[in-house]
Amino acid sequence: MMKNVLRALSVILVLVFASCGKEQAPRNDMAIKLDPEMDKAAWAVTATPQDDGAWMVSFHAEIDEGWSVYSTQSYGDMGPWPSSFPFDSLGHVQLQGGIEEVSEHTIDGHDPVFDMKVKKFKHSVDFKQRVRLAATEIPFSGTIEYMTCNDEMCLPPATLFWQCNADSGTFHLSTTPFDPSAYRVVGCDDGVYKLAGVDLEKPAVPGPKVREKDSTLFTIFFLGFIGGLLALLTPCVFPMIPLTVSFFTKGSEDRAKGLRNAITYGGFILIIYLIFSIPFHVLGSVNEEIFNEISTNPWLNLFFFVIFIVFAISFFGYFEITLPSSWVNRMDQNASRFGGMIGIFFMALTLALVSFSCTGPILGSLLAGALTADGGAWQLTVGMGGFGLALALPFALFALFPQWLNSLPRSGSWLNSVKVVLGFIEVALAIKFFSNADLVMNWGLMKRELFIGLWVLVGIGLTLYLFGFIRFPHDSPVKKLPPMRWGLGIVTLLFTAYLVPGLTNGPWRNLKLLSGFPPPLFYSYYQQKSECPHGIVCHHSIDEGMEAAQRSGKPITVDNTGWACVNCRKMEETVWTEPEILKTLQDNYVLVSLYVDDKRELPKEEQHIYISCRGQKKLIRTEGNRWATLQAESFGSVSQPWYVLLSPDGKLLTDPVGYTPDKDEYGAFLARGMHGMQVLGASASR
Asked: What's the pTM value of the predicted model, to 2 decimals?
């Protein structure tokens, strides 16, 4: 599964036409470098005949100074992407033996990036594959898949395409493009994704200069902090608080030193959780669309679905999830051996490992929820910071005020009840991840009513548990319900009752408090398949939208949206439902909804390579690839929702806006678009 995720992250997908010939070894001047600034390895392909009629195909790489290409051997899910050279499945090509690796600059040892022993190559390397051809007059082809890293970072795996052409039964150097009908090349200047009429610097009616809001990051931090507080109340962490604080305050030479050590311990806990987000900053710097690819990848969402169900079963008490004991023992030994600051760091790391069975599901929820195109890695960093701070604060506060330890409740069955409640929450989140995969793939397996129905069942189960009607393996008999449990049970019962109208087709089915979590209102069993909210006539192609606008004379609302976009659903179900907004969208605009996370593949003849205005190459394979590229190239954003108002001939009417939950602000945005039409009409008439 992790390999599939890495393939989803392979955003540097390029088409290279390498040459092959009867050379005995590739020459340096044959090596083709894709992008002098971004690419770190130049490749050449040669094929030489052997005495027995076979051919030796050699893939030669010239590697930039300081960078490496990895061996073909597998390193597992946590290791580097191995180099591979799959041949297309052609009947006349038979592979003989495996890949031979030849290099004078082989490094077989510890890799600082992946912290494991690997085999990699610097400067240059040849990968050789022996093949036998049943028909030499037929070309053969394949791909080169590889990753380049230095001692600090890695570029995402890249895929190169090659083909060797036969001529009179012999191979020769050739620059003939391989299978040009498979992938045509579209450039920035072709105007397919970079709309000529859109000038972001010169809208017809400029919008107000709004300072970027940091409310989203604050919300992520707050949710991370709440998650950390929940983790504190689990059996893996709560008993550690008095033990650890007592160790520092009573085991030190003086109280001041014990206080410093406890605060340092808490600080290291915060740092450890912040470190978890660093790799995502590296990925985000390579490709700005990567977080949208991660968060909407259907297979990754299904992976999270399975993982969260496993976590839930563990929280219910049917088995325990723990990290390998050797990891924990090694950290504990290091903490005892080093002492001082290093020892305190390993103590903090030991806590992170020991508590994984309780914190892992909460962190998984944070990871899956924070990686969006809107904030990318910074959302994850802020969320991790909130989580780590909540875990670290008790150790510092109780060290400052040790008398507070006496007020802590004793460990008991209530800790297990916290885990069980979290288990029900994990089941609800698992349903959401399955729904994301279903939406982006348009399978139609989990319509809105089924989603809400499953949440109702989860709510009923949690209510029965809180009121003591059902028990799990580690629960003690409930003789008397405490007030907290009564209160949570009543809240859960009311929430479950709130969900029930969502199962109907009545006027109360729009659950505005949950906008963004269930599938959209139009993804329903009660109506025929539709992809337009509230019965608005909409289009799903920018070309179709412009044609409709030119026929009607109306301006265009380009709705850059996504099936798995929470804020998009909030806008549709809380702002677009306002009577004046809905009437404006229905009567005055042509709506073009472009789903950037639609994973349905384009027909083969429509798939192509796009070379962006910055020189990056990208394979346009799905509907979502097409519209995500249009949004980035023409509208200067990769986040959703992103609303753009255009005239029928494609000119920008006003500055685009993103998530705008205030109906008055959004109404003013639409009004500026109508005013922009008047301005363009007035200027055109002069």
From this structure: 0.56
